[in-house]
């Protein structure tokens, strides 16, 4: 191909990146629903397993459909390599356990998704890995937390659920000086609005379940970084622990990538309008949205993000008020997911962050009055009417 895909616009990368047509010349990517692959001879199998000859061996090791998804997402992200996983949490788990050993030390932002917090607080200590939590917004806190055995920094930015923003570039410099790898969960920003690798991160992880699918169909995850890191650090870990993404889910996620930029752009437009409406309502004590100038880290956002995304957090003062709001919604669904074409709202303290202790939730400012809303693709007037009516009843 004379065209260099790295020079394509984002929209072209999302539609055509990684295409690998069979001799039939199909327009939609082929779906290879198979577990294993045949070899022309015993010698050919030997060459394939030794790595001397390229090709597929077993679905857990790789699949043609999944390869197209990985190549397309890597092209979008600006990464040398991508490894797909069965879910976003499988990606987070692999990203950490692939880099850490017994006796190592992790530094993590205090504001983490509930399942991520469980891995860091409950699983890692079983293997002799210690963690220090820090105020992710403050570079000095990261610097002060470094120990001689610090191997990984973990960042979630924007963080779930209160949209805290970490200055990724500054933290990347601290990690590099300490000889540690920086892992960034970029799911809220999406690869459309933030590029952590360009800011200095070593590994970017996604729950492809969210915006990449974006239509509530399948689970999926991804890890992206340099080819050296993906091959030397993660290749064997992923092969032998088995968090493989199914070919069918890979195909569905490929279809999701084709419309990702269109959906995220429209969702962000809707979210900006709804965020202003929420912020102006008398029942709301506080509103946080990455696209508003009153966001606590607005200056950092201006430096590293190109859009506000589709998630809004707001405080109604009490669990009772938050539940009244949720129960009054007629268009927006009550659901713990996000990034979907359908708008959905949740009460994080009793859903996504329920596994955290009350003390840990208070440490990140997550009191019982907070609601998180993921704005979808419905008509903005319909969403405004639904949210306004529910706020009145809060």
Structure explained in plain terms:
The chain has 394 residues and is α/β, with parallel strands linked by helices. It folds into two domains: 5-258, Aspartate Aminotransferase, domain 2 (3-Layer(aba) Sandwich), CATH 3.40.640; 260-393, Aspartate Aminotransferase, domain 1 (Alpha-Beta Complex), CATH 3.90.1150. Helices cover 41% and strands 14% of the residues. It contains 16 helices and twelve strands. The chain has helices at residues 10-16, 42-50, 64-77, 88-97, 114-123, 139-145, 168-178, 190-193, 209-213, 227-241, 247-258, 260-279, 298-304, 319-328, 358-363, 380-393; strands at residues 81-85, 105-109, 130-134, 150-156, 181-185, 203-207, 221-225, 286-288, 311-315, 333-334, 344-346, 370-374. The strands form two sheets. The protein has a seven-stranded mixed β-sheet, with helices on both faces. Strands 8-9-12-11-10 form a five-stranded mixed β-sheet. Helix 3 (64-77) runs parallel beside helix 11 (247-258). The radius of gyration is 21 Å and the shape is globular.
Can you describe this structure in just a few lines?
With 394 residues, the chain is α/β, with parallel strands linked by helices. The chain has helices at 10-16, 42-50, 64-77, 88-97, 114-123, 139-145, 168-178, 190-193, 209-213, 227-241, 247-258, 260-279, 298-304, 319-328, 358-363, 380-393; strands spanning 81-85, 105-109, 130-134, 150-156, 181-185, 203-207, 221-225, 286-288, 311-315, 333-334, 344-346, 370-374.
């Amino acid at each position: 191909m004379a065209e260099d895909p790295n020079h394509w616009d984002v929209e072209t990368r999302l539609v055509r990146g990684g295409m690998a047509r069979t001799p039939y010349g199909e327009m939609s990517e082929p779906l290879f629903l198979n577990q294993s692959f045949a070899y022309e001879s015993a010698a050919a199998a030997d060459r394939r397993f030794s790595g001397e000859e390229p090709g597929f061996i077993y679905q857990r090791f790789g699949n043609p459909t999944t390869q197209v998804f990985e190549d397309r997402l890597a092209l979008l992200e600006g990464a040398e390599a991508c490894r797909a996983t069965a879910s976003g949490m499988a990606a987070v788990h692999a990203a950490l356990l692939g880099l850490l050993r017994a006796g190592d030390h992790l530094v993590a932002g205090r504001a983490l998704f509930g399942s991520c917090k469980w891995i860091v607080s409950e699983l890692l200590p079983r293997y002799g890995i210690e963690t220090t939590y820090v105020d992710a917004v403050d570079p000095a806190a990261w610097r002060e937390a470094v120990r001689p055995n610090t191997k990984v920094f973990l960042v979630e930015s924007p963080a779930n659920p209160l949209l805290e923003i970490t200055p990724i570039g500054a933290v990347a410099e601290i990690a590099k000086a300490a000889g540690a790898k920086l892992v960034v969960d970029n799911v809220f920003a999406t690869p459309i609005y933030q590029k952590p690798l360009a800011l200095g991160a070593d590994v970017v992880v996604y729950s492809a379940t969210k915006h990449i699918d974006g239509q509530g169909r399948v689970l999926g995850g991804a890890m992206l970084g340099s080819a050296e890191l993906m091959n030397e650090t993660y290749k064997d870990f992923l092969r032998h622990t088995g968090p493989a993404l199914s070919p069918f889910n890979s195909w569905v996620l490929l279809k999701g990538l084709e419309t990702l930029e269109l959906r995220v752009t429209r969702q962000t437009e809707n979210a900006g309008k709804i965020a202003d409406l929420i912020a102006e309502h008398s029942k709301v004590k506080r509103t946080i949205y990455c696209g508003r100038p009153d966001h606590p880290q607005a200056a950092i956002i201006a430096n590293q993000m190109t859009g506000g995304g589709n998630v809004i957090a707001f405080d109604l003062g009490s669990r009772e008020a938050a539940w009244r709001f949720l129960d009054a919604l007629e268009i927006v669904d009550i659901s713990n997911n996000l990034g979907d074409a359908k708008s959905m709202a949740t009460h994080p303290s009793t859903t996504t962050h329920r596994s955290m202790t009350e003390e840990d939730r208070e440490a990140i400012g997550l009191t019982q009055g907070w609601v998180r809303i993921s704005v979808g693709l419905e008509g903005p007037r319909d969403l405004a009417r639904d949210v306004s009516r529910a706020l009145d009843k809060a």
